[in-house]
Amino acid sequence: MGKQQPAVVYEFVKGLWDENPVLISLLGLCPALAVTNSALNGLAMGLATTFVVTSSSIIISSLRKVIPHQVRIASYIVIIATFVTVADRFMAAFYPEISKALGPYVPLIVVNCLILGRQEAFASKNSVGRSLLDALGTGLGFLMVLFTLGRSAKSWAQGHS
Amino acid sequence: MSTSARMIVVLTLIVTVSGGVLSSLDSYTAPKIQHHSLVQLRAAIADVLPEHDRYDELALPAQTLYVGRKATGEPVGIAFIARGSGFQGVISIMVGVEPDFTRLTGIKVLEQIETPGLGTKIVTDPTNKANPLWFPEQFGGVRPEPEITVIKNRPPTTETEIQAITGATITSRAVVKIINDALKQAKSDYQSSFKKVS
Question: Residue B22 is nearest to which of A85, A92, A93, comparing CB atoms?
């Protein structure tokens, strides 16, 4: 292709600020507003999303030459939904309080555009290593915003931090 | 392999693996999740009934009654889950009542999606620093015969009255209606369960 690939480290770093899913790409705004009523909820949602985007990216980039172009979106959604269900059941089994607080927003990770967006724009075209870094960066960028929002929402609402 | 055959094979494989992963995960997490809801149920029963040593589940066609008993077997109270419409959605309440259904022993709201800051005071009222649980605690000792009534802007004067939450009259009325209706059902269910046995 002749196109120079960016440095490997940049694949990770870009998700934190340059291509931050919430602040720059304006994706995943629904959970960013809905569950950031406390730092803990923001953190839990961020971790769940990071888990889903990272696991999906690994699987999808390693299957990128196997999945036919015509059924790629259906395949991506099945893979993403599988990891979302894993995250949801895991939280319900081990962290019932957080699971209750997040309610339907955990299963709704499946329709979070930032996840399908990373698969379509990145994991389906890049190596497993780069896709992993890209997904981790995106997930952490999302987590940082949710955690910060949750923390400040709590201090604004209650008048102390 | 033709493209359409490949599409079918690949999607089928992905879905099969996904189904396998999820079913083995479910067999691992389902007992844990069930355990959590059982613990919550037990805690709610312990909250609404007077001190008891054990409880029996009385599974009736319409609902399950939880009969709290002393070690001697003497019943000290009956708990059951009452469900009905609130202001915005379903409210479900664990209700405790004396075995002869003459007085409530306590209630605990299990599920609700009422207006935050107003209707949610049926669970706890953070604006009342002295007793955030003043609303649910009113039900302890209340007499449900002929029925519990809601009053506004003054403390209760009779043993059947409950004071409404200011700004959440509909929610307060809904809670009382749910409890009144469920009590009648539970009372007839409980008493007819004896007739069958004897």
Answer: A85
In this prediction, residue A161 has a pLDDT band, given cuts at 50, 70 and 90, of very low
Please tell me the number of Cα atoms within 13 Å of A130 on its side-chain side.
16
Partner residue opposite A75 with nearest CB, options B3, B11, B32: B11
Assess whether pLDDT exceeds 70 at residue A158. Answer: no
Residue type at B48 in one-letter notation: V
- Secondary structure of chain A as H, E, C letters: CCCCCCCHHHHHHCCCCCCCCCCCCCCCHHHHHHCCCCHHHHHHHHHHHHHHHHHHHHHHHHCCCCCCHHHHHHHHHHHHHHHHHHHHHHHHHHCHHHHHHHHHHCHHHHHCHHHHHHHHHHHCCCCHHHHHHHHHHHHHHHHHHHHHHHHHHHHHHHCCC
Asked whether residue B61 is domain-assigned, the answer is: yes
A47 and A143 Cβ atoms separated by less than 8 Å:
yes
What is the helix (H) or strand (E) element at residue B35, kind and residue range?
helix B3-48
User: How many domains are contained in chain B?
Assistant: 1
In a domain, B36, yes or no: no
pTM of the model: 0.79
- Residue B30 belongs to a domain: no
Cβ separation A92–B29 shorter than 8 A: yes
Please tell me the predicted confidence (pLDDT) of residue B196.
Answer: 61
Distance from CA of B177 to the nearest CA of A (A): 27
Contacts of B131 (CB under 8 A, 6+ apart): B137
ipTM of the modeled complex = 0.87
Min CA distance, A133 vs chain B (Å)? 24
Helix, strand, or coil here: B191? helix
Q: What is the pLDDT of residues B100-135, one digit of tens each?
A: 999 999 999 998 989 888 999 999 998 998 999 999
Cβ contact, residue pair B25, A85, below 8 Å? yes
pLDDT band at B30 (very low <50, low <70, confident <90, very high): very high
Cα separation, A19 vs A141, in Å, equals: 9
The boundaries of the domain holding residue B120 are 49-197
In a domain, B21, yes or no: no
Give the contacts of B133 (CB within 8 A, at least 6 positions apart): B124, B125
